[in-house]
Write a structure and sequence with these properties.
The protein has helices at 2-28, 31-53, 61-86, 91-98, 101-112, 119-137, 148-170, 176-198, 211-239, 241-246, 250-263, 269-285, 288-305. By secondary structure, the chain is an all-alpha fold. Helix 2 (31-53) packs antiparallel against helix 8 and helix 4 runs parallel beside helix 12 (269-285). The protein starts with a helix and ends with a helix.
């Protein structure tokens, strides 16, 4: 189990820094076009890894259905909204809003998996939403000047939360790592078709990229998108949706660090307050605190019985 936890920490580091990487890439190119190419590169990387792991196989008809539905939310909608959002807002704001993932996952699990939501979790959901309001206040226009980019990033993490529930449903029969590859391959094709319609001149900008931007592109595609999603989806199948989502607590922290170190963004008081609200909101909303207290109680009970 500790091996899975270690892998999840690595994924959060990669995903946090990937907010900065994605910001750099979508600023250098047209966002949807370069995202389609990035996700396709990630898909090829996943299938190369799976070939050496010897777990490649064709999905069943039922699995294809879940793959396509999850693909629409996890790849097409998530990456589309994220690429557009980060081209219109700061990496700091984007990273903090992405930290709402565990809370939104809890909400989605309540509606679709009939999961129980306690009063503590409900409190956490409210705290997380308050955190978003403080992040929005960090913008130049305050609460009255909500950035469209922030809204797009929120939609990105909401659609991803929907996909995690679908991945859990199918992970009993199809290896989540293999599902990741199929989702990315199908999603990249759909994103590319969207880019041809929305950004007809997008491909003409590709040759203008500098070597350092392409290096960031490869790091984002292979390490964060391919390896990161493959490990995370695999972890969902092993430890469950809620427990894996707890580790997204680390995501906004790493995103803030990346924004400061590589983009020179300033961390305002509003963003710090927003981060604190989201952190405690996720700890309560995801059920992590309750699970910790239950484990502590079980350990004390075992100690007393001995």
């Amino acid at each position: 189990m500790y091996k899975i936890y270690g892998l999840l920490v690595f994924v959060m580091l990669a995903w946090g820094l990937n907010v900065t990487a994605t910001k750099i890439v979508v600023t250098a190119f047209t966002p949807v076009t370069i995202t389609a190419i990035r996700v396709f590169t990630a898909a090829i990387s996943v299938f190369i890894f799976l070939y050496f792991l010897k777990i490649l196989r064709l999905p069943t008809k039922k699995e294809v259905y879940y793959i396509l539905i999850a693909c629409l939310f996890n790849v097409v909608c998530h990456h589309y909204f994220l690429s557009i959002g980060l081209s219109k807002t700061s990496a700091s704001n984007g990273g903090l809003i992405l930290g709402l993932g565990p809370i939104l996952t809890t909400v989605v699990a309540f509606f679709f998996l009939k999961a129980r939501v306690s009063y503590l979790q409900l409190t956490g959901i409210v705290l997380g939403l308050l955190g978003v309001f403080f992040i929005v206040a960090a913008g130049k226009g305050g609460f009255s000047g909500i950035s469209i980019g922030d809204i797009y990033v929120f939609l990105a993490i909401f659609t991803q939360a929907l996909s995690f529930v679908l991945i859990k449903k199918v992970s009993n029969t199809l290896d989540p790592r293999l599902m990741t590859g199929y989702m990315m391959l199908a999603g990249s094709i759909i994103l590319f078709i969207i880019s041809l319609i929305q950004e007809p001149k997008g491909l003409s900008q590709i040759p203008n990229g500098t070597w350092d931007v392409w290096l960031v592109f490869l790091g984002s595609a292979v390490i964060a998108t391919a390896i990161g999603h493959m490990i995370y989806n695999y972890s969902i199948g092993k430890v469950g949706v809620s427990e894996a989502a707890v580790f997204i607590n680390l995501n906004p922290f790493f995103a803030l660090v990346g924004a400061v170190l590589f983009l020179g963004e300033v961390i305002t008081v509003s963003r710090v307050i927003g981060f604190v609200f989201i952190l405690f909101g996720v700890l309560l909303g995801s059920g992590a605190i309750e699970e910790y207290l239950r484990d502590l109680k079980r350990k004390k009970h075992i100690t007393h019985s001995l």
